[in-house]
Every structure is written in C-alpha cells, then in structure tokens.
Amino acid sequence: MTLKILSYNIHKGYDWNNKNYFLNEIKELIKDVDADLVFLQEVVGQSNKYRKYGQLDVQFEFLADSLWSQFAYAKNAVYDGGHHGNMILSKYPVTNWENLDISTNFIEKRGLLIVQIEIPNLNNKKIFAATLHLDVFHRGRKQQYQMIKNKILSLNLNDQTPLIIAGDFNDWNKKAAEVLNKELGMEEVYQKKHKTFAKTFPAGYPFLCLDRVYVKNCKVLDASIWHNSSQRHFSDHLPLFCEVEIAE
Question: Which domains, ranges and CATH numbers included, belong to the chain?
C-alpha cells in the first residue's frame, strides 16, 4: 500500500516577511497534494490578535475540514491571547495521540506530537507518526534528538511497525541523522532518493535543509519539494512531499 505524505511549516499562515496572510492558499495547496498524512508546524490554535484583524485564528479546524476525517493538534507555545503548535492530518483513523514536551529553554517551546493510526483496509495495521519543530541552535537540538530517541524506544514497536517522523528539524548542520539514522535505524526520504537533503528554507531562495521526513519499515518510492502552480511562496518554508510503501 502506498502512502502520500506532506510536511509543511506554514509559518502561522503568513509569508516570509509576515506581510501577507495566505491561510486560504495554504489550504488549497495542501488539498491539491491530496496526501494521506499531512504534518504541519506553526499552526495557530487561538489568537486574539488574528481575530482582532478579522483573520481566522482556529487554523487547525479550518485546515482539517472536508478532506481529512482525522486530525490531532497540540499546542506548544502558549502566550497572552493565544497559542500555536503542531498538527497531523490523516485520512485514516487516529486511535491514540500524545504530545511530549521537548522544550530546552524558556524561549522556544517545542513538542513532539505522536499519533497511532490504523489502516482499515490492511486489517487495521498500525502505524506511528510524529511531527515536530526543533530548536534553532544545535545545543538544544542535541538534547531533543535524545528525547526523541528515548520516546520512540519506549513505544516498544515491533520490527515491522511503520514509523514516520516529519517536520521542521531546523537541522542546518545536518546532525539529526547521527541519531535517527544510526541509532533508530530510520531513513530520510529525500536523501534516500537524491543523495542529499532537500533545500526548503527560505522559500524565496532556499539554501538551508531544514525540513525532513524520516521513515522506518517503509519503502521510499519518491520524494520532492512541492511547488504550487503559481510558484508563489505562502510560507517561509517550502513543503516536502514523498510517497512510501508499507507492507501489506
């Protein structure tokens, strides 16, 4: 069975300079991809400021509407008048979810959102999926890699259970693989197909490889940076798309 996957830091609905609000266009882009699983970062769950200016602030309900029957949203950054966090959209039933606090400092509030998904037409086969948005500085990310590893190991997954971890790793120095590849036995999809990581930031002139999709017990079929038809950049990141096959 093939799964289509999209990972996208939507920058709270704004473009790179926080000038234009593109939430409707972001939703249309996500719908055009028609992915089975969508991993989103910087999703606004509530904002008095957005509401004041007539902008939609409960973004997770708006983005999940109509195409994905299941979703999980977890707030990480909580502030006066609102909060934002990570989100997973799924076309298949989400049977369990949790959010692990992986913050390493008082400024960057980070979380690891993990969901368990059942695939009905595969005899309710279980897969585990997680999304994240890691620290800007390597010192914090080093701690977070270990938190992620310890959490995944604590799940006691068997040797056949598909595992997907996707999101904004902020891994500009390309060190995440030392834990996810070598210690967890995962593969990064774009690197698997193209022998390098995807350049996704900044959207207008991408030269940093920040966004990743790591998989285990999945065969990587394709991986690409998703461009919308107009080539406009609705966020400060470009979306990362892939197709994987899970054993039936």
Answer: 2-245 (3.60.10.10)
Q: For residue 117, give the nearest of 132, 130, 133 by alpha carbon.
A: 130
Task: Give the span between the Cα atoms of 57 and 242, in whole angstroms.
Answer: 29
Contact between residue 114 and residue 128 where contact means Cβ atoms under 8 Å apart? yes
Give per-residue pLDDT as tens, 185-231: 999 999 999 999 999 999 989 999 999 999 999 999 999 999 766 66
Phi–psi pair at 211, nearest 5 degrees: -100, 140
User: Vertex 186, ends 6 and 237: CA angle to 5°?
Assistant: 30
Provide CB contacts within 8 A for 245, sequence distance 6+: 1, 2, 3, 218, 219, 221
pTM of the model: 0.96
Is residue 208 within 8 Å of residue 215, measured between CB atoms?
no
Residue 75's nearest CA partner among 59, 95, 96 is 59
Q: Phi first, then psi: give them for residue 171, nearest 5 degrees.
A: -90, 60
Higher pLDDT, 109 or 81: 109
Distance, CA of 197 to chain centre: 16
Q: Which residue has the tokens 């595992």?
A: 163
> Is residue 2 very low, low, confident or very high in pLDDT (cuts 50, 70, 90)?
very high
| Phi-psi domain of 170 (left: phi exceeds 0; alpha: psi -120 through 50; beta: other) | left
pLDDT at 83: 87
Residues 129, 94: Cα–Cα separation, whole Å: 10
Cα Rg for the chain, rounded, in angstroms? 17
Q: Which residues contact 65 (CB under 8 A, 6 or more apart)?
A: none
Q: Residue 99 is which amino acid?
A: N
The β-bridge partners of 71 are 89
